[in-house]
């Protein structure tokens, strides 16, 4: 019998979920805090973790971070309110198998649990092949989509470094793979790395490798991701999260096409094409001194700017049809379309989670649909109640955050006396991202 660890501090809600899972032949243990959950993980080793986002001693993201670091073979499902969609998308980036929103649909929960128990999710902190999990994507018909396809066709056959800009969920890794598949390196490895998941202590070892005994814990020789990608393409996602010292080593690897493993006394020749991606403004970061300007120009030989879904309204119906087809295959359903009211709602919504969010909403609706047409009663309540904000205000706020980020983090850290857990909650970021930001800004 498969063992599930459920972390939920609402006793009534926890009991409802537990009873449902036990009726479906799962063994369930409950915890109401991160500390209690970590003890149960070590003593009982569950096959799956289901955690609420808001917990008494932290957040579900903190639990996810600890679990993926210490027990990467255990999948994690995050429960969140629909209004926390950005947090849910962040959880997917951090390695969560899936997220489900409250109020929970029993059918959706059961399907998600069964899928998660088939095997561990691919982690982007390790190399992935071209079939790895990522946001599904189809060629759009909007002007922005057509322009992007032209850029891909132009740059793919070259060896130029490419910098892909775009919000979370816009399909940056898909574009990187497509460039690789249409290049002369298509028969060589494609290695994807989530730079945001690399700790400052181990980033050098992960990227460039190490020699046995070169530092405490180096029990064997390790081949780094650059060497694994030799002859092919390496994709550096969220490259702006790399620490300054690693930026120096990365620049050297690009310029000299050589790497030196930690502890090695000689260099290794490499031949890799670099594609980098970020949802941060690297250019302003290089001007502010937070990201090396010379490295920025090395990575930015060619730029592809992926537009968010809200700027590609003409493509929404096309993507929706694609995701319905995929969901039918996966869930054994026979849904054919959405009705006019749902299409209107989709067109008016701002899609902060972009394609990932659309895919999850469509899949949920397909699962719940009893007929062939998706109607608005199958959509999450928060989506129905959504009131579109002024995009100008949203982007003004984003620009202000970029300008004031260092001061804001510094102020919060001082207010909580450098308690990283409290600071990460107040700032709305996971602790690993906070550590990277602190290192970048010298806030220690």
Automatic annotation (TrEMBL):
Keyword Transcription recorded: yes
GO biological process annotation, one example: phosphorelay signal transduction system
Lineage top rank: taxon: Bacteria
UniProt GO MF annotations: ATP binding; sequence-specific DNA binding
UniProt name for this protein: Sigma-54 dependent transcriptional regulator
Alphabetical UniProt keywords: ATP-binding, DNA-binding, Nucleotide-binding, Phosphoprotein, Transcription, Transcription regulation
Response regulatory domain mapped to chain residues: 3-117
Domain Sigma-54 factor interaction: 138-367
InterPro entries per UniProt: AAA+_ATPase (IPR003593), AAA_lid_NorR (IPR058031), CheY-like_superfamily (IPR011006), Homeodomain-like_sf (IPR009057), HTH_Fis (IPR002197), P-loop_NTPase (IPR027417), Sig_transdc_resp-reg_receiver (IPR001789), Sigma_54_int (IPR002078)
SUPFAM superfamilies: CheY-like (SSF52172), Homeodomain-like (SSF46689), P-loop containing nucleoside triphosphate hydrolases (SSF52540)
Modified residues (4-aspartylphosphate): 52
């Amino acid at each position: 019998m498969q063992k599930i660890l459920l972390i939920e501090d609402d006793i009534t809600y926890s009991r409802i979920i537990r009873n449902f899972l036990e009726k479906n032949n799962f063994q369930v243990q409950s915890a109401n805090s991160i500390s209690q959950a970590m003890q149960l993980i070590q003593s009982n080793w569950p096959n799956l973790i289901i955690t609420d986002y808001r917990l008494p001693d932290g957040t579900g993201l903190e639990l996810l971070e600890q679990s993926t670091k210490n027990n990467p073979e255990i999948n994690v499902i995050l429960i969140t309110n629909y209004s926390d969609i950005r947090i849910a998308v962040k959880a997917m980036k951090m390695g969560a198998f899936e997220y489900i929103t409250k109020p929970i649909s029993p059918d959706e929960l059961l399907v998600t649990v069964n899928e998660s128990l088939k095997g561990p999710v691919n982690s982007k902190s390790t190399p992935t092949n071209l079939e790895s999990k990522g946001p599904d994507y189809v060629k759009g018909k909007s002007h922005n989509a057509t322009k992007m396809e032209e850029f891909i066709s132009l740059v793919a056959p070259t060896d130029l470094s490419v910098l892909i800009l775009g919000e979370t969920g816009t399909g940056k890794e898909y574009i990187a793979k497509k460039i690789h598949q249409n290049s002369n390196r298509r028969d060589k490895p494609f290695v994807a790395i989530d730079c945001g998941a690399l700790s400052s202590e181990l980033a050098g070892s992960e990227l460039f490798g190490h020699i046995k005994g070169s530092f405490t814990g180096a029990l064997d020789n390790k081949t780094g991701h650059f060497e694994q990608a030799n002859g092919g393409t390496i994709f550096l996602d969220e490259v702006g999260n790399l620490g300054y010292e690693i930026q120096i080593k990365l620049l050297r690897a690009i310029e000299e096409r050589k790497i030196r493993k930690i502890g090695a006394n000689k260099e290794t020749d490499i031949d890799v094409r670099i594609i980098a991606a970020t949802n941060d403004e690297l250019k302003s970061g290089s001007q502010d001194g937070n990201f090396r300007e010379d490295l920025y120009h090395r990575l930015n030989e060619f730029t592809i700017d992926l537009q968010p879904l809200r700027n590609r309204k003409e493509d929404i119906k096309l993507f929706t049809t694609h995701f319905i087809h995929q969901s039918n295959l996966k869930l054994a359903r026979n849904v054919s379309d959405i009705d006019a009211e749902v299409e209107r709602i989709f067109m008016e919504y701002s899609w902060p989670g972009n394609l990932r969010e659309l895919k999850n909403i469509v899949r949920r609706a397909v699962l719940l649909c009893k007929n062939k047409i998706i109607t608005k009663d199958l959509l999450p309540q928060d989506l129905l109640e959504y009131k579109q904000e002024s995009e100008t205000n949203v982007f003004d706020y984003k620009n202000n955050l970029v300008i004031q980020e260092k001061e804001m983090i510094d102020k919060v850290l001082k207010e909580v006396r450098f308690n990283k857990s409290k600071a990460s909650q107040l700032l709305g970021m996971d602790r690993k991202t906070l550590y990277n930001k602190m290192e970048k800004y010298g806030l220690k």
